[in-house]
Amino acid sequence: MVIQDKIKYIEAKRGRNHPLFMFRNWLDEKVPSHRELKLIQVGGTNGKGSTCQWLNLFLRKEGFRTGMFTSPHLVSHLERIQVDGSWIEASEWERIYDRYADFFEEEQLTMFEIDLFMAIVYFVEQKVEYGIIEVGMGGRLDATTALDYIATLITNVGMDHTEYLGTTLSQIAKEKAGIFKESTLAIAYDTTCFSVMEEEAFRKRTSLLVADYDLSNLDTSALPAYQRENLVLALSCLRQLKLLKPYSIQSVIDSFSWLGRCTVLRKDPLVLLDGAHNMPGIEALIRSLSSFEGVIYFSVLKEKESDKMIKRILKWNSNVVLVRFEEERLADLDVLHAHYRIPTIDFEDMIDRLKGAKTSTLICGSLYFVGKVLAHRDEIGS
């Protein structure tokens, strides 16, 4: 198999992860030096990837060699594993995969477990000084929680993945707080259900701190509101770990970007892309933009709160268009079209319209949708 076939093969390996002790045992046996890695774990409903990027950029600014593991990917599966801001090379990915392919098959690891296992192998090989690990889903049972950390962070708590994490904010908060570990720094930005998370921290014999960093002396005007929240969490963590030098903060803020989050594809007329893939994400986007006039292209997966998301978007003075793209988990857009009387078009038609757009345009929704748009960014931006 060529690398594309190998990636396609593991992407079909969905399902529940193995118990944490099993995944930990595999790492201890096959990659024992993983225990020497200094890792920071980032959990929460939204903003995990952005917070990882903030941490990554600040640590690199201080001269540290960093590793970063995030999911899902937007453009290439390789982007899930990065060292010093660069995706793992295809040849390196294939070399590591081939070395452990029989083990992956024998133990029937899921795609997420394979990705994480390979990331840890690569980080050890590359001698990273700090690694940033994004939780896949939830926290308590997530494969990333099998690792050791110097800090565990929670961005926020919102209603998402309710079929797995619970149907109330308290239940979801408890699942996310499951990442806390004994005598390990724990910080949360969002104080929603803080008492629930604090109780879990107490049970794990650690203290939960609230993210707190004064941004008043910094210029954050170019950042969307939700990125300022992620920034505060990252800065709070690094200050607690004594890894932060204030003089470097502004330069990182000035150059910050995270693909698919308030990404400007074209400036005139404005074409803005944002992975607001759930209701908390939509609320965060609205806080950041406050208003938007133009055309909004939107697509959503069936397990998300599509009705609430559309109702909130419709409050803007904009023309909303639903976009159909190839994805088995796509919501029933025909039902949404009939109920809200919103036009529906195919993805290819949207791309054609974007090329000749003469008004401000916002593209938002599913991260898979955002990823497909990014594959056409050169056409849209020209």
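(ticket continues) Second input and output from the same batch:
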Amino acid sequence: MVGQDPVAPALSLSTFLRALRERQSPAEFGLAAGPRRRTPGLRREEVAQLCGLSATWYTWIEQGRDVSVSAATLARLARGLRLSRAERSYLFEVAGKRDPERPGQGDDPPEAVLACVDAIDGPAYILDRIWSARRWNAKASALFAGWLDTGGETNLLRYIFLRPEAKTLILDWTARAHRVVAEFRAAVTAYSDDPDIRRLVDELRIASPDFARCWETQGVLAREGGERAFNHPAMGLLNYQQVSLSLAGWPDYRLTMLLPAPRLD
């Protein structure tokens, strides 16, 4: 007989909800502690009331019964229990649902975080969820002619597919373009209903046959670093190692750094 995985209960939705309930302070929600509380934290009936759910429905969820918990119900639980960003993300993850509100989606990193690019000794830039550059340093501006040096359009995809400079600057443009689209598709899966992303994709499919062909392949790739080579009109052949990192606390923003690499033969 195969033993039960000891990790599984700790990762279950019911176990997580019970732990959340038991560590909440009734006073923080304006509820009297009362002399008759036999368990720590909130009662199930109180959680249900705070979250706008029936007591029976919440009880079934916490008991781990075979019920279908919708994303809307999870959102009510997150709001009612005042979950932190990390707790809310974990709640949806353990329930196997996509968060329709994506906490932090509309929050911009503070100026001090964006300014980190100025401390990097190499081209560096920060992209938001639709892959528009929000901040870049002087070396990035010097490298990316037609994108980060113009003070105009800052979207990376529009630059790659709509600006003629990109095909000259980026070595092996065709392969890189296919990979960038596959990485973008993977990155925006959680935003399938985001109007900004849908407008961007629709625009590029019309304006760029190259983008349309790449998009129709349905390629999906995780974003990763590696060798990047550029043929700069003034600086000649440039080789870098690209490193991309998500910003802690702002998962929709990514910092990309191009670090000097040996010249390719």
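Agent notes: The domain at 9-95 is CATH 1.10.260.40 (434 Repressor (Amino-terminal Domain)). Residues 6-11 have pLDDT under 50 and may be disordered. Closing as not reproducible unless the customer responds.
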